[in-house]
Amino acid sequence: KLFALDRDGDTLTYTIGSISGMPMRGMGGFSINSSTGVVSVPSSGGNYDATTTSSYVLSIQVSDGTFQDTAFLSINVGAENPHAPVFSPDSLNVTIPWDASVGTLVLVVSATDLDDDAIDYSLKSSSGDYFDVSTSGTITTKSSLPTTGTVYTVVVRARDFVSSGSKTA
Predict the structure, then answer these.
(1) For residue 56, what is the enclosing H or E element?
(2) What is the value of pTM for the model shown?
């Protein structure tokens, strides 16, 4: 939303003057509410292709009927990616020796992404500070385990850095 203030209290009208970065198909990808200054794209996605042009600069004019001013609004658009990574199975149980040395391989986790995006793994949570996960999904012991018979829960996050969400298991 753009906001302008008129010291005389006149009613202001907002318009889009031009859009740089917009393909020759026109300005149908962005609109502005002439009364509120809210800039939006239609729910259908508009008239832009984020895979070829990801940055746009809108020239916005505001007028009180006598005077006019211009502001520039930069908009970065990401490509749509509806598929977050998925773990299958989403829960695993592993047994390791209580006297495992630091760096011992515990498990290698793997998630799939329907968009074939690269997946990065990180530790979301862990009971204690005993485990680590590499960006490739390899879980290892980070420090010596204190006792036998203890159950530890390790939660790993898989992120494709494209979708808005990430999946954990």
Answers:
(1) strand 55-63
(2) 0.53
DSSP code at position 31:
E
Structure tokens at 14: 């907002």
Q: Which residues contact 102 (CB under 8 A, 6 or more apart)?
A: 141, 142, 143, 144
Q: If DSSP codes are grouped into helix, strand and coil, which group holds residue 43?
A: coil
Q: From CA 169, how far away is CA 157, in angstroms rounded? A: 7
Q: What angle do CA 107, 112, 115 make, to 5 degrees?
A: 155
pLDDT digits (tens, 9 = 90+) for 23-36: 544 455 788 899 99
Express each pLDDT in 39-59 by its tens digit: 887 666 565 666 667 778 888
